[in-house]
Amino acid sequence: MWPGRTRHITRPPIALVNRLARRLESEGRDIINLGQAILGLPPPSSALEAVRRGIAQPGTHAYSPDPGLDAVLARTATFLRTHKHITGASPRNLMLTCGASQAFANAVFTTTNPGDEVIVFGPYYFDHVFAIQLAACTPVEVPFAKEGSRFAIDLDLVERAVTAQTKGIVLVSPGNPTGFLADTGTLERLCQLCRRHELWLLSDETYDLLTFPPGTHVSPASLDVLERVCVVGSFSKTLGLAGWRIGYLHGPADMIEEAIKVQDALVVCAPVPAQLALLAALETIDTFSSRARSELLRRRDTMTRVLEASGLFDIHPPEGGTFLLARIRSAEPSLPFCTRLLEATGIVAVPGAAFGRHGEGHVRFSFGNQPVERILEAGERIAAVR
Fold first, then answer.
1. Whole-number pLDDT of residue 1
2. What per-residue confidence (pLDDT) applies to 311?
3. pLDDT > 80? residue 13
4. Do residues 137 and 217 share a domain?
5. Is residue 266 located within the same domain as residue 327?
6. Region 166-186: what's the mean pLDDT?
7. Does 49 map to a domain?
8. DSSP H helical segments within 147-214, as ranges?
């Protein structure tokens, strides 16, 4: 067994599926990738033009300050105030990161000590659990409750999971892989629970602007109920900048000061070209996100129809995000099912086992990265599977 701290961390089953997909594609198979949770739209043209202009400037090729360029921090703080209603957002409470994953790692390493426990809701996003384990902490999985076909948080279960070692709770809304969207009442009660037990609330809001009617995203940091809120954000999805690795961490100023130490040790700063792209892209975020939501809604509805028509799944309609979670009616384990689906049809999907024990028996299908025509084609292929 490997002697380092990674020995207890398992690679997610999606790695096995992706390896098989690459082999099949190299053999000439037509692969439809419904695995990766990205927004299949290019970033705003203004972002690309800003990078082209920036390449000619010497400063683009140097490090920025660890928290980010002043102008980009200021513009991101404005975004948090105007779009997420976090009234106290300012550059002092903010740092730019290499995507939401970097922001989450910064938050975990800053707010915990080895041996602490951190509550996650299952099915959970696997990279969060990996970061918690790398910090030598213990993830404690609390299952989502069900209200009909939608997911919900059972606060009584959360209360019972809190121990003297609990340091924080991870909330992902809209949720990955569930598409769960927390309402204001639930958020207020969750914040009150955190305040009673002096816990941090680590709120991953990667898909904040990509919600579906009638739902809207609410950040717990906008409620003024709890000071210990870390907002983890990304522009990978909302602005199509996944490969540029640009996100942010917002929280109390003293926590951000400590998080800078983590960032400097790991990556120093967010990529400067990506910061320039973000500065320009934020000027068009309203029109871009509106177009993205409209397109995602078409793709979501198409994906829902074709999966329901196959008779193979029960659907959990997502309230936000770029994917949906489907329960396998045959109760076949998710990794063999996804492997068989890929070999038979050329369709890549993520086994629910990747998202913990409460994800087993499910499959996550990502509709964000494929146009409606390819989703319809995927539906025809899936309909032939038995």
1. 75
2. 95
3. no
4. yes
5. no
6. 97
7. no
8. 155-161, 184-197
Torsion of CA 217, 221, 225, 230, to 10 degrees: 120
Q: 73 and 218, same structural domain?
A: yes
- How many folded domains does the chain comprise? 2
* Residue of 42, 61, 8, 10 lying closest to 272 (CA atoms): 61
The reply to whether the predicted model has a pTM over 0.90 is yes
The DSSP line for 70-116 is HHHHHHHHHHHHHHS--TT--GGGEEEESHHHHHHHHHHHHH--TT-
Q: Which among 220, 249, 284 is the end of a domain?
A: 284
Helix (H, G, I), strand (E, B) or coil at 140: strand
With CA atoms as reference, report the closest residue to 137 among 145, 128, 146, 150.
128
Instruction: Identify the pLDDT of residue 11.
Output: 80
Do 29 and 129 belong together in one domain?
Answer: no
Asked if residue 258 belongs to a domain, the reply is yes
Is-contact 331 307, C-beta < 8 A? no
The tokens for 177 are: 């892989």
Are 126 and 34 found together in one domain? no
Q: Is residue 56 part of a domain?
A: no
Q: Give the residue from 260, 284, 308 where a domain finishes.
A: 284
User: How many C-beta neighbours within 10 Å does residue 11 have?
Assistant: 11
**DSSP code, position 39:** -
Token readout for 283 is 């000027």
The model's pLDDT over 40-60, given as tens digits with 9 standing for 90+, comes to 899 999 999 999 999 999 999
Per-residue confidence (pLDDT) for residue 310, from 0 to 100: 95
Both 96 and 182 in one domain: the answer is: yes
Strands 229-234 and 200-204, how do they pair? Answer: parallel
Residue 129 half-sphere exposure, CB side, CA atoms within 13 Å?
Answer: 21
**Residue 80: domain span:** 62-284
pLDDT above 80 (res 135): yes
pLDDT tens for residues 63-111? 999 999 999 999 999 999 999 999 999 999 999 999 999 999 999 999 9
Residue 57 lies in a domain: no
